[in-house]
Amino acid sequence: MEFFFKSIERQAYRMALFACSNQDDALDLVQDSMCKFVAKYRDKPEEEWKVLFYKILQNKIRDFYRKQSVRSRWRMWLKRDFEDADAEPLEQFPDPVNRTPEHETANQQMFTYLQQELKKLSLKQQQVFLLRAWEGLSVGETALAMKCSEGTIKTHYFRATEKLKKKLGEHWL
């Protein structure tokens, strides 16, 4: 199970970070998801782990948004000035093998632009895109993880890729 968590931890962290825009919250979401996975699904067959884990992560992200919604109502009511959740940039995991500083800078700029465009997508489109394109889950697996129909997944994935193609160009996707 340790190998499984090591194989998905970075992708899960990035997905959570895209959703909440705060490094600490993203780490908490991933850690809570891993703990719940171990508690509930450690006895399941290994081929089911990835889908089950992302289902838990999606639920944790939805819960996070619900809590944030309630908290923001209270904050507005109490008129307190709290930290900006968007202040932390996306942590990147560069691969410096045989790359020049210029190449790394260009990649970093392209990734930053991709991150900005992903944040402009709706949460559902964003999460469907990340699960399908980055995690390689099938339509059925993504539907199971996000608790919605396969048709909904296809629609949101199509819309997300179309928006990204318009902004980033065909060669990015």
Automatic annotation (TrEMBL):
<dbReference type="InterPro" id="IPR039425">
    <property type="entry name" value="RNA_pol_sigma-70-like"/>
</dbReference>
<dbReference type="GO" id="GO:0016987">
    <property type="term" value="F:sigma factor activity"/>
</dbReference>
<dbReference type="InterPro" id="IPR036388">
    <property type="entry name" value="WH-like_DNA-bd_sf"/>
</dbReference>
<protein>
    <submittedName>
        <fullName>RNA polymerase sigma-70 factor, ECF subfamily</fullName>
    </submittedName>
</protein>
<keyword id="KW-0731">Sigma factor</keyword>
<keyword id="KW-0805">Transcription regulation</keyword>
<feature type="domain" description="RNA polymerase sigma-70 region 2">
    <location>
        <begin position="5"/>
        <end position="69"/>
    </location>
</feature>
<feature type="domain" description="RNA polymerase sigma factor 70 region 4 type 2">
    <location>
        <begin position="113"/>
        <end position="164"/>
    </location>
</feature>
<dbReference type="Pfam" id="PF04542">
    <property type="entry name" value="Sigma70_r2"/>
</dbReference>
<comment type="similarity">
    <text>Belongs to the sigma-70 factor family. ECF subfamily.</text>
</comment>
<dbReference type="InterPro" id="IPR014284">
    <property type="entry name" value="RNA_pol_sigma-70_dom"/>
</dbReference>
<dbReference type="InterPro" id="IPR013249">
    <property type="entry name" value="RNA_pol_sigma70_r4_t2"/>
</dbReference>
<dbReference type="InterPro" id="IPR013324">
    <property type="entry name" value="RNA_pol_sigma_r3/r4-like"/>
</dbReference>
<keyword id="KW-0804">Transcription</keyword>
<dbReference type="GO" id="GO:0003677">
    <property type="term" value="F:DNA binding"/>
</dbReference>
<dbReference type="InterPro" id="IPR013325">
    <property type="entry name" value="RNA_pol_sigma_r2"/>
</dbReference>
<dbReference type="Pfam" id="PF08281">
    <property type="entry name" value="Sigma70_r4_2"/>
</dbReference>
<dbReference type="GO" id="GO:0006352">
    <property type="term" value="P:DNA-templated transcription initiation"/>
</dbReference>
<dbReference type="InterPro" id="IPR007627">
    <property type="entry name" value="RNA_pol_sigma70_r2"/>
</dbReference>
